[in-house]
Amino acid sequence: MSGSQTPSELPGEGVPSAQKSSWATFLKSIASFSGDLSSLTAPPFILSPISLTEFPAYWCERPDLFAAIADAKTEKDRSIAVLKWFISTLKGQYTSRNEKLGSEKKPLNPVLGELFYGHWPDVNGRGQTNLVVEQVSHHPPITAYYICNPSKGLALQGHSAQKTSFSGGSIIVKQIGHAILAVDLPGGGKEEFLITLPRLRIDGLWYGSPYIELAETSYIQSSSGWLSTIEYKGKGYFSGRSHSFKAVLTPPGSSTAAKKYEGVWHETSKDLDTGETFTDVTTPKEEVTVGPLENMHDFESRKLWQHVARGIREGDYDAASREKSKIENEQRQRRRDEQAAGASWQLLHFEHIPSDPVYERLVKKFNGNPPTEDTYVFKHNHSQTPSVRSVPA
User: Fold this and answer.
1) Residue ranges of region Disordered (predicted)?
2) Domain count for the chain
């Protein structure tokens, strides 16, 4: 943050003038807060109109790349296809709100039991890809998801949570959780991939224009032994550009790279051996298809938050704040009623497992940490046929 400032770089420049006082108060509360920042209430103008429960849809906004994993013929080629698909999901997951809304926004904090369903239709024989998401915990916020393409024999199951803290003028987000991709093999059997999650750093707070940068390292470990190691760096590293990464693919039992890739995950990357393009996410993505609002269950994200989202999109932050408080108060009362009745909330689509055996088996292959993690297993109790949708009771 050193050096001369242009007018666009003045503190709080990205904040609406009427909101600068509340933004300054929010920054002070972040700087003085100890513990997990997710419990802090953000000013409405920095809220995204999208609930965190919708975020697993970003895994499959390029469904062709997801389906292509099943078409790879060898273990090495499958690991390359998984890496290519994974890198291509990062732009949607970590820059889409920045691009649409002018700066990074804080997602709406989901309520316990919140649901999101969607699909990407079959096009040119790639098969239909289906998505089921459930908010399985509110404190801390944990989102469980299941994404599958049955005709291609692909299933991704995972969960994510965040622990946030403030350091050096940035918000540091440790992503907790993992995903397991299972691939049905043509000759029978199954290959599994453990996908770990990168850390995030939210910069630009001083200017009121937050943006996400990925940090440190994440891994994709195949049950076949192939390992992708992805290192993330921000501006000033590698290419001197934001969103830079390097990825190395190593074969079973070896630390010698079989393939190397480098680039920026929000635009393009290349195969360092051939010089050919590896990933290119500058082309249009495919938004998830959801059912009509009037057919949704009250706990489905877009119906639950519709009035809050409208207020945010229209800049009516008073209305957004009122509607948000109404939902939060209803949830507090629901928890009080459950406590009084000696009952607890029952998950609809997922079952909590304290220790994930697939994670533990695969994380050992690269000596990853932590050595154990819990998981949420999909119950396979939701139809994703567009014309026949199962609705929770």
Assistant:
1) 316-340
2) 1
